[in-house]
Known about the structure:
This protein is an alpha+beta fold.
Amino acid sequence: MSSWKRTVECGLVDQKHLSKEVILNGWVARRRDHGGLIFVDLRDRTGIMQVVFNPDVSKEAHDISQNLRSEFVVSVRGKIVKRSKETVNEKMPTGRWELFAEQLLILNDSKPLPFPLDQSEAIDEELRLRYRYLDLRQLPMQRNLALRSTLIFSMREFFVKHGFFEIETPILTKNTPEGAREFIVPSRLHHGSFYSLPQSPQLYKQLLMAAGLERYFQVARCFRDEDLRADRQPEFTQLDVEMSFIDEGDIKNVIEKLLGYMFKKVFNLDIKLPFPVLSYDQAFSAYGSDKPDLRFGMVIHDTTELFANTELAFLKSIITTGGKVGAIRVSNKAFTRSELDGWVEKAQSFGAKGLLYVRWSEDGTLESPVAKFLPEDFFEQAGKIFQDLKKTDTLFFVAGNYKNAWETLGRMRCALAEDLKLINPNILNFCWIFNFPLFEWDEQSKRYHAMHHPFTAPQQGWEQLQPDQMKARAYDLVCNGMELGGGSIRIHDRATQQKVFDLLGLSKEETQDKFGFLLEALEYGFPPLGGIALGIDRLVMILTGSSSIREVIAFPKTQRGYDVMMQAPSVVKDANLKEYGLMGIVKEKK
Ligand code: ASP
């Protein structure tokens, strides 16, 4: 072969290559020996092309092809021909053609793989991660990464077009608590001192506004040392944005325009803008969550008044101590008794003491474990709360303090919708949540925490309110029940920032030590500012319909934060520990 380099990629072969000579490079995805003929599915990142080795076309190539095994890397030269009618595969983009091989060069061989790459069976995720470079060879994984790349490119394009600068901020930084636990890195030059890895570039981006850069964005890597859930990773990527001389409406506008631009560019889809806005209180009272999934109804209703005169002791005691009873309605589902019992258990697993159900049997009588305690006109009374209440409806009630009861109902709502297949997976339902509380009380530490972060500006009139009544100028973007991003208008004067630190219970020394540089900067002409960050991994996860964030990250960690391929974190040599001044500390633990 004069050159082994490809002239066309496997998945891009089409009509125009017919009867032409081409060279393909790629991996052997499958090899089938049909007596005289050997068929190979050759794969590269664009797709698969069928190659035929026929001794009548080239005895030499046919001979070499006998040695081919899965994942050998080859170069094949030959002619593109039409497949016979019976062998056309309409499901494959290249299924109407095949390559008649004239020359074959094996560029590399491969050991038998630890798992097949054809998605023919479910593979243990640890094994996939251990051999991630093999796992990523699979076309669905390549598609995820390709879409990720295209989306990030379109983000950059949008922001640059709108006059934003992409500015990198440090990875080795100072511990700047925003709420999450941070990773720390020992310093070799300053024994006993540590850098922190940023949980977000928050303070840097605020300082970039102080620096007069006005419009900033960054595709930023962030680090949080937290217990991991299905859609979390210790390091993740976010689109980080900050702007000066703006208010909430500007951020909302920019992000909606960005998403509109990306959907048009990447999927040629027009999304419906603007997105609906709910206040935190509206979202929580109707959906029991600040990230409601709006793809289905099943709204939570306050049904406390239905039980105002109840004889049921446990409900009575909840209501007289200020608790509430909430309910959701499931329509057109004839639950069996064991299904209903299953839902009671589910509610308990969500933290409820119990779940009451009420439904009406065909003769119109009430069916419920507490039926005899319910008034005869319960259906009529409930009908005043639930519009169009039907005798085929089932009501599920949860009682308790407002927050817990509603959170349980919110989770029940999602679990029921999933179980009853009420969710259309092809819909993207975005909404904004505004008017968050500024603080939330933490029972454990007996102090307030910032609900967003401590740099978030309070809403007007805050000084006259108790901390738990204060509202934040913060907002979240939610899609299909997932928080896609969040941000806020920031405090830009020292006095307010100092007061918020005080309310958070930070001493003057702590404030000075952790945030002295920020308080100082706030005294040198800090412009009004605000921003937002969107989780890129989550966005790509939603857009690719992936079930886990790990499906859209090239080299993710396991749920225990472990890199099974590189085997990190790992033990370091004593000599290194010494260098970092860690010898005594780590030795004891070993
Ligand atoms: N730093 C925030 C976060 O990572 C986002 C923001 O307020 O802009 O959640």
